[in-house]
Amino acid sequence: ISNDRSVRRYQSMAQNTRSMAQQLILRERIKGERTIAITRLIILIPIALIAVFVMVNLLRRSSSNSAAIPLFICYVVSLAIAASGSIWVLRITKQGSYHAWMKYLFPFVDISLVNCVIFFNASAPHYALVITGAATFLYFIFLVLAAMRNSTSSVLFTGIYITVSYIGLTLHGMGNIGVLAGDSVFTNQGGAIVDIMWDDELIKVFIMITVTVLLSFISRKFNKMVITQTSIRLESNDLRENFNVQLQTVTNHIIQSSLQLEETTESLLKNSRDLVRSSDTIENETNEEFASIEETSSTIIEMISTIEMVTNSINQQSHLLLESVAAIEELGSSVN
To answer: What is the tens place of the pLDDT at every residue in 75-121?
Structure first.
């Protein structure tokens, strides 16, 4: 019976641990999603300023606006989508709402917007910007932000999507500038000679994969740590409850024993009072009996004294009677 109770208790504790851990992880995911949304809004401010600066330069350099207009539309649409998504996330998470698809949808949207910006920014004749442009560093920002969702699958999805996107855009840029055909050196629009190296791009891909694996490991470790801490907390609460129950039991036993002892003491005091009263009664009765005996003894003594007086009177009368008889006898003798 005790083993069955232990098994049921362990199963109940394990279920409670999983339930509480899921609630804590969900709470942390909501916080992480809100942090990512706020960070996204903050990042959009300098990106918007940079976009304005880039567009002004393009309009100055270009004789026509045919190349700048698509890029400008891409910037505006990307910024609007990112800002709208961030505001929507902050609104629904403020109410405590969270859906599992959010950890995949928003990384997909973020990376897709970055891909769109890089693709339009690296259009002809700036294909090399896929490799040398600064926009590719946004990948690492969103990869690090994905770890705040506390989801291993989300981090892996984000890292894989980033790696595949970078490889695809890199191959697209290399194909347009002739690197895939064997020519790794080209002259950019500013007249500078640029040497594209395969090993450098492979190192970037390796870094992306490594960061993805490390962040996935950290996220998984965090979830396990939450489960472990939850289990420890539940065990502590269980021990505390058992201790409180045992302490309450001992306290109740002590209180009952104290009450019984108090009742016994009161009973002893009552018996002692009754005994004292009985002793007083017996003493009074004994004194009364002694007084009665003394009174009776006095009466008997008085009776004995009366009897003695009567006896003495009878003796005197007997003596007188004897003297009278003797006188009569003498008188009779004289008469004779």
So the answer is: 788 888 888 888 998 888 888 788 888 888 888 988 988 888 787 76
CA gap 131, 299 in Å, rounded: 145
State whether residue 100 is helix, strand or coil.
coil
The helix (run of H) or strand (run of E) holding residue 185 is strand 185-187
- d(Cα 114, Cα 302) in Å, to the nearest integer? 141
Q: Are 50 and 134 in contact (CB under 8 A)?
A: no
Terminal CA-to-CA distance of the chain, rounded, Å?
136
Q: How far apart are CA 161 and CA 105, in angstroms?
A: 12
Q: Which residue has the tokens 């004292």?
A: 276
Q: Are the CB atoms for 113 and 81 separated by under 8 Å?
A: yes
Amino acid at 282: I
Q: Which of 194, 196, 202 is nearest to 175 (CA)?
A: 196
Rounded Cα distance between 209 and 111, Å, is 15
pLDDT digits (tens, 9 = 90+) for 294-329: 788 788 888 888 888 888 888 787 788 778 777 887
Which residue has 């851990």 as its token pair? 21
What DSSP assignment string belongs to 149-175? G--HHHHHHHHHHHHHHHHHHHHHHHH
Query: By C-alpha distance, which of 218, 209, 196 is closest to 132?
Result: 196
Between CA 15 and CA 231 the distance in angstroms is 10
CA distances from 323 to 128, 326, 328, 333, 334 (A): 185, 5, 8, 15, 16
Mean pLDDT across the stretch 223-242? 71
Smallest CA-to-CA distance from 103 within 145, 56, 72, 45 is with: 145
Phi, psi of 192 (to 5 degrees): -85, 145
- CA dist., res. 30 & res. 223, Å (int): 14
According to DSSP, residue 276 is labeled H
In the block, tokens 């009450």 appear at 259
